[in-house]
Amino acid sequence: MPTTHPPAEPAIHVAGLEKSYKEVEVLRGVDFDVARGSIFALLGSNGAGKTTVVNILSTLLAADAGAAAVNGWDVAAHAAEVRASISLTGQFAAVDEVLTGRENLLLVARLRHVEGPGSVADALLERFALAEAGARKVSTYSGGMRRRLDIAMSLIGDPPVIFLDEPTTGLDPEARLEVWQAVRELASNGTTVLLTTQYLDEAEQLADRIAILHHGRILVDGTLAELKQLLPPAQVEYVEKQPTLEDVFLALVGGQTAEEHQGKPVGNAHDQTKELR
Ligand SMILES: Nc1ncnc2c1ncn2[C@@H]1O[C@H](COP(=O)(O)OP(=O)(O)OP(=O)(O)O)[C@@H](O)[C@H]1O
Ligand SMILES: [Mg+2]
Q: Whose CA is nearest to atom 16 of ligand 1?
């Protein structure tokens, strides 16, 4: 089985994908490619078909027409090879409430026949800031902790391609930033990430390429700069820069802003709090 591919071959290739549920045409010819080691955001409103695309790419659902390949394998003809190449973090957290965080990780590590499951679990708990909570039942975790554990579980076995279906829906701003940081780290280590989101800022912050799925087709697909060029440049206006609600929230609760996460210099939380007075 070939496990390496020429770099020119995309990690994900989708061409003419179609899917209907009875008479409802959800996908009407979807095309896109995702380069290896990149973060690709599939944007769309509720019901646009994002989860349907992810489910087809992860072999949970068969397409009616078109072609899709993941890590070089056709999803219909080589489902087992596709499944060995991916992990899926679904729209709804798939962690076991009754087990502890560490036990959840151990379970997946054993299922995937990973060597040294204990040390793999401990390393992931550390990486996702869950070391202290590792021995607690997941039923006591916050939404953000569950999501981080869910993503940690999907990394076991180092799959080259990861699908994250709405990874930050329902999370508070701090937890979102933590998940974003985890996604960036994945891509910097060479993992290909396809994520779906309804949050425009999430795509803006994270994605190398963004595609908008609407009425069953990809309306646009490009880098943020390319998408911005689709509209005429805005007229220059001089306005006083007001803090965003996110700045206020994070200054008061002591988290980092998206800019700080990206290493851009910004005023510290204390200064921002003072400006509010
Ligand atoms: N098993 C199913 N049977 C019938 N219709 C379905 C089924 N699954 C999805 N649909 C319909 O297909 C459309 C696309 O659903 P899908 O879940 O892919 O959208 P989505 O973009 O992921 O939406 P959301 O943002 O709400 O998660 C919706 O109209 C949905 O009602
Ligand atoms: Mg969905």
A: 49
pLDDT surpassing 60 at residue 273: no
Q: Where are the alpha helices (DSSP H) in the chain?
A: 50-57, 79-85, 101-111, 117-127, 143-155, 173-188, 200-206, 224-228, 245-253, 258-261, 269-276
103 close to 130: Cβ distance less than 8 angstroms: no
- Give the type of residue at 193: V
CA dihedral 4, 8, 11, 13 (to 10 degrees): -130
The encoded tokens of residue 36 equal 């290896």
- Find, among 58, 39, 27, the residue nearest to 192 by Cα: 39
Cβ(235) to ligand 1 under 6 A? Answer: no
| Complete domains list, the chain, with CATH | 12-231 (3.40.50.300), 237-277 (no CATH)
pLDDT in tens, 141-159: 988 888 889 988 988 888 9
Of 39, 24, 74, whose CA–CA distance to 216 is shortest? Answer: 24
Contact between 202 and 44 (Cβ < 8 Å): no
The response to whether residue 44 sits with its C-beta less than 6 Å from ligand 1 reads yes
| Whole-number Å distance between alpha carbons of 215 and 210 | 17
Ligand 1, pocket-test mutation among 22, 23, 52, most atoms within 8 A of CB: 52
pTM: 0.81
Contacts of 268 (CB under 8 A, 6+ apart): none
Cα–Cα distance between 188 and 11 in angstroms, integer?
15
